[in-house]
Specification:
With 119 residues, this protein is of the alpha/beta class. It contains 6 helices and 5 strands, in the order H-H-E-H-H-E-H-E-H-E-E. This is Twitching motility protein PilT.
């Protein structure tokens, strides 16, 4: 939801820091964005709408992944990711502990990458 909140072109930033990536979004994330769009108001609703439009209009693959029984979204992201893009500090810490590459917004201006990039 960074593009709506901070006016950062995340696709251009991802290309800058990870030039040989394939950007994929799990289907459970798009469902969560739809829920936020329907149930939230204000900035969160707008940010979810922008994120969904970005997914639809860009070369972003939505992969069909379901949550396991009683699995939380964050746990599923850690299970399936090689590179995780998040601003959630708790999730960043958990990803680093699992030795995943983490991409996050830095200084509200650009994306930074941390961790091993042996993709």
């Amino acid at each position: 939801m960074i593009p709506a909140q901070f006016h950062v072109d995340i696709l251009a930033e991802l290309e800058r820091i990870l030039p040989n990536y394939t950007f994929m979004v799990p289907s459970f994330v798009t469902r969560e964005l739809e829920t936020i769009k329907k149930r939230s108001k204000g900035k969160d609703r707008i940010a979810a709408s922008v994120a969904l439009k970005l997914i639809e209009s860009s070369n972003i693959n939505v992969i069909d992944v379901d949550l396991k029984y009683k699995e939380r979204v964050d746990d599923a992201l850690l299970r399936i990711s090689k590179v995780l893009c998040t601003n959630d500090r708790g999730l960043q810490k958990r990803a680093r502990n699992k030795e995943l590459t983490v991409v996050y917004l830095r200084q509200k201006k650009y994306l930074a990458v941390e961790g091993y990039l042996g993709l």
